[in-house]
Queue: 2 jobs
Job 1
Amino acid sequence: MAFLVKGGNGQYSYSNNSSFQRGAIHATKELINEAIAENLDIKNFSSSNTFRVTDLGCSVGPNTFVAVQNIIDAVNLKYQSQGHRTPEFQVFFNDHALNDFNTLFTSLPPDRLYYAAGVPEYQKRCWTKPLPAYNKGRIHYSNSSDKVVEAYAAQYAKDMECFLNARAQEVVCGGLVAIIVPGSPNGIPHSQVFVNMGSELLGSCLLDMVQKGIISEEKVDSFNLPTYFASPQEVEAAVERNGCFHIERMEMVPQEIPSGNSSTSRGRVMSSHMRAGMSGIIKEHFGEEIIDELFDAVHKKFDESSLFESWNRN
């Protein structure tokens, strides 16, 4: 996906509504540590040279700082275990050109031991919006026709090919690429994947707004979320087809059920996370005036639905 998340530090900002993504970083920490310990080849890396790390899709923090520090700690351990002096580090924070880099850089950890640089706009060269078959009454491929699913899958394959080709030009010999993305278990119908159910729920709220005369049916029919949640088999096929990399390890990592509290329901947590990630692309297509009402409706539908019962099955 390549749309702009909500910047700043406000109530609906990505900074304050990205605990699910942070959970994925924590859940994959040991996998990345093991990959660095076992597979990072430092024989040709001089510790007198700068070791460079790039976060592609850094957003506005603070998750990126956690991910970057995990990698730096693991690399330092690798150098120390082989009796080498640890190198200096440079970190490139990379995202959409309109990403809120001001918030990102004002939030940099004061005790960091690396040089930081912002490098905007890699996505334009790789990720493009899918152009699916006509998808009347839906905003996503879940529960859509085979042609729509095939169009999304084909677009995913093209985007991954572009992404891997670009990384092949950048990664030094012996380096590693770690990809953390939402996915679908092998063999599970798209309609039964939790993240896809959330997209379906969002689409139903937009259709409710059509019925109320707030937006037009044509607007909904021409809108498609540019997200595709690939299975491990599809990821493996994309890497093998590209031929520039080989997979050292790949795992599906379960995430925890979102928890509410006495003042915030799980539906509110989910709707706030979706708003932080999707409000930009929705605003671009439908206008800013629908955002509050739309995500209030998403919140209520989540609370009224049984979707959270499906979470553990994915």
Note: The beta strands are 51-56, 89-95, 115-120.
Job 2
Amino acid sequence: MDNIVETVRFKLKEGTDVQTFLAAAEGTLSYISTCEGFVYRSLSLNEETQEWTDIVYWTNLANAQAASNSFMQDAGAQKMVSHIDGATLVMAHESVKMSAMGECIESA
């Protein structure tokens, strides 16, 4: 069975402070890191378009879907999502067909 990469692309609501949003996003880590099948997560920003990409790797699709289905039950997730412009949100689950890993350095 393939690992799954979940991508969520979105823009923030007009006037949202980036540091406030990042603090809210960090508040979801205690939930997401305890979900069955969680492997890795990163959050990035395209400075040019102001589009964010939240990437989460899962061991399988069932675990990814279970976490997605229960995500909004977490208070931290509700706080994070309150800053997102829902009209811009696009989510996908895709099978990982090839991967390679170099040295990982924790940032921010």
Note: The first helix runs from residue 18 to 26.
